[in-house]
């Protein structure tokens, strides 16, 4: 298991129900989860706490915008973490084939399948159920690790 102080990348699917996915510098998913923040104030404290638990965090990738993104970005920047924002359309164009993105329901199903492939390929704990926000965070993180050069692309073993 990689050392928690090794460089890592945290992907966040923004919302009061937030998806989180942590990747190591080997490009593998370490953990993922869904966390509910009841208010912006709780989210601000929660972002501080999550980032505080990750001493080797080098990259923070946020899907979404607005006030929630600003809270995470401000805290990440304050800590010297490289912060990047991405929208769903951008990472989907990189990770999903055009035929997998044609219809919204199809895109969600293919994204869920790819997220499960990432979990299996990484050797991360399998979910009893995979919440949509956690699956999105996993894929935002995959997009992020490809972007920073930790993986050259989506490994074929992730695609089922």
Which key terms come to mind for this protein?
160 residues; alpha/beta; Nucleotidyltransferase, domain 5; five-stranded mixed β-sheet; 21% strand
Q: Can you walk through the features of this model?
A:
The chain has a five-stranded mixed β-sheet. It has 160 residues and is an alpha/beta fold. The two termini are 25 Å apart. It contains five helices and five strands, in the order βββαβαβααα. β2 (17-24) and β3 (29-36) form a beta hairpin.
Number of domains: 1
Mean pLDDT: 91
- Which strand-content bin applies to the residues? 15-25%
CATH top-level class? Alpha Beta
Counting DSSP H or I runs of 4 or more residues, the number of helices is 5
CATH architecture: 2-Layer Sandwich
- Major sheet: arrangement of strands: 3-2-1-4-5
> What's the CATH H-level superfamily name?
Ribonuclease H-like superfamily/Ribonuclease H
CATH topology: Nucleotidyltransferase, domain 5
Q: How many DSSP-defined strands?
A: 5
Distance between the termini: 25 Å
Which helices and strands occur, and which strands form pairs?
Elements: E1 8-13, E2 17-24, E3 29-36, H1 40-52, E4 57-63, H2 66-78, E5 82-86, H3 88-95, H4 104-122, H5 132-147
Parallel strand pairs: 1-4, 4-5
Antiparallel strand pairs: 1-2, 2-3
Helix pairs in contact: 1-2, 3-5, 4-5
Overview in brief:
The chain has 5 helices and 5 strands; from the N terminus they run E-E-E-H-E-H-E-H-H-H. It is of the alpha/beta class and 160 residues long. It has a single domain, classed as Ribonuclease H-like superfamily/Ribonuclease H (Nucleotidyltransferase, domain 5, 2-Layer Sandwich), CATH 3.30.420.
């Amino acid at each position: 298991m990689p050392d928690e102080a090794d460089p890592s990348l945290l992907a966040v699917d923004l919302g009061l129900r937030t998806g989180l996915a942590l990747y190591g510098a080997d490009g593998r998913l370490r953990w993922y989860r869904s966390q509910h923040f009841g208010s912006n104030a709780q989210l601000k404290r929660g972002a501080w706490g999550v980032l505080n638990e990750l001493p080797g965090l080098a990259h923070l990738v946020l899907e979404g915008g607005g006030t929630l993104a600003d809270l995470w970005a401000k805290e990440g920047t304050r800590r010297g973490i490289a912060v990047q924002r991405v929208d769903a359309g951008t990472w989907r164009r990189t990770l999903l084939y055009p035929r997998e993105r044609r219809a919204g329901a199809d895109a969600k199903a293919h994204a869920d399948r790819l997220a499960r492939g990432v979990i299996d390929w990484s050797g991360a704990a399998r979910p009893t159920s995979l919440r949509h926000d956690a699956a999105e965070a996993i894929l935002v993180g995959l997009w992020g690790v490809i972007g920073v050069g930790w993986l050259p692309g989506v490994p074929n073993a992730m695609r089922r």
